[in-house]
Amino acid sequence: MATERTDLGMTARRLARTDVVSVTPDTPITKTAQIMRDRTVGSVLVIEGDELIGVVTDRDIAVEVVADGSASLTHEVTDLEMLTAQDVMTADPQSVDADAKIQRVLRAMNDAHARRIPVVDDDHVVGIIAFDDLCSTLPGNARTFPRNSTVWPKSSTPNRHRTEIATRRSRRNVRANKMGGMI
Q1: Please, what are the domains in the chain?
Q2: What is the pLDDT of residues 145-180, one digit of tens each?
Q3: pLDDT tens-digit series, residues 118-129
Q4: How far is it, in rounded angstroms, from Cα 29 to Cα 42?
Q5: Helix (H, G, I), strand (E, B) or coil at 20
């Protein structure tokens, strides 16, 4: 069986999902969350007219609204229905040009610390790429980058991260055993 080869020449336009889910800046955050749930997406683009002005992610809602109780927002919100997508969104999100190659898309996602990135053509949104979409282009449809990946720094590779966590746990267990299980 032949192994599929990753097409590093593939463009963002070819890989992008074109069924972009978007809201307006004044969409209530509760409605935004319902749209995300119903469409099973982790983010929505905030579009005003034809212009991309922000992105709201499930993490934005969980951290900014639920966990912080809207304390980190610019104004105090007592009624969740009063909170809008514009209040929670990440403004001026990183995007990539539709003709960008996969490596450029990966670098942009890494620079923005984002798992999803809008794809634009002449400042108009034409799609969105999720990290999982990129992973599906790897040989054998792998779900993680190989350890020798040249795109991600070594400290960011999943295997190294798991190893660091295991090492910390192991050291903690050794200290606990030396102290008679007191840690």
Answers
A1: 12-141 (3.10.580.10), 146-183 (no CATH)
A2: 444 444 444 444 444 445 555 555 555 555 555 555
A3: 999 998 999 999
A4: 14
A5: coil
